[in-house]
Amino acid sequence: MLIALIARDKPGALNIRKANRDAHLSYVKETGVVSQAGPLLDDEGEMTGSLVILEVEDMSAAQAWADDDPYAKAGLFASVDLIPWKKVI
Fold first, then answer.
1. Domain count within the chain
2. In a domain, 89, yes or no
3. What is the residue range of 40's domain?
4. Does residue 30 fall inside a structural domain?
5. What are the φ/ψ torsions at residue 4 (nearest 5 degrees)?
6. Which end of the chain is more exposed for a tag (fewer CB within 10 A), N or C?
7. What is the chain's percent helix, strand, coil content, to nearest 5?
8. pLDDT (tens digit, 0 to 9) for every residue of the chain, 89 residues total?
């Protein structure tokens, strides 16, 4: 099952993102369930959130992945949405 994780950073949290980026990227690689991923950007090109496509068994596995993400543990996100997603292209 594919799940789109769409996370929005808390305002003014760019330093939290930068401080935890290496741990987040290691987590992405180690878990092996990320199909695609990248930061959301503001008008100035600064990172303001995340879009991650997870390939997991079910929504509870997606939630567990999201909860264990170093970004989430650092309190980076104002909101996180997990949405079933269908790849067309």
1. 1
2. no
3. 2-84
4. yes
5. -90, 120
6. C
7. 35, 35, 25
8. 999 999 999 999 999 999 999 999 999 999 999 999 999 999 999 999 999 999 999 999 999 999 999 999 999 999 999 999 999 99
